[in-house]
Specification:
globular, four-stranded mixed sheet, alpha+beta, 2 helices
């Protein structure tokens, strides 16, 4: 049901939705795969390659969640992606927050630490923000 309320549209859908993946377009697929495998312990679950070589899609995940990160590489992309104001991010929970923070700091990939909130952010090779937070 869609109803108009002033200038806002209100949506009410009576169905269940399960989040399954998030897509990041990447400029250098091999560099991104290495980052996600080595820094966040994600493994390649499957890939789709266009017969004409125009794209490769790789799904990454782990045994802790069914949620997947989809990396899409497009042959037509000739320069790194413009991520605009970077007002989005992907978040990961970790069991040993302090040890993980120390490892990421050693790698030089920590972009921002918010001590008040108890979280930090790293950047992937394309500049996507990734939030790291302790398991709750």
């Amino acid at each position: 049901m869609i109803t108009l309320q002033g200038t806002f549209i209100s949506y009410k859908i009576n169905m269940n939705f399960k989040m399954i993946h998030l897509n990041f377009n990447v400029f250098n697929l091999e560099k991104s795969l290495k980052f996600y495998q080595e820094v966040l312990n994600l493994k390649e679950k499957r890939r789709i390659e266009a017969a004409d070589g125009s794209y490769i899609i790789v799904y990454l995940g782990n045994e802790l969640s069914e949620f997947e990160l989809e990396l899409t590489w497009l042959a037509s992309q000739k320069q790194p992606y413009d991520l605009g104001d970077e007002e989005f991010h992907l978040a990961f929970e970790v069991t040993d927050y302090q040890a993980t923070l120390a490892q990421h700091q050693k790698l030089g990939i920590v972009e921002l630490v918010n001590e008040a909130m108890g979280i930090y952010f790293i950047l992937d090779p394309d500049g996507y923000w990734i939030e790291i937070l302790p398991a709750r």
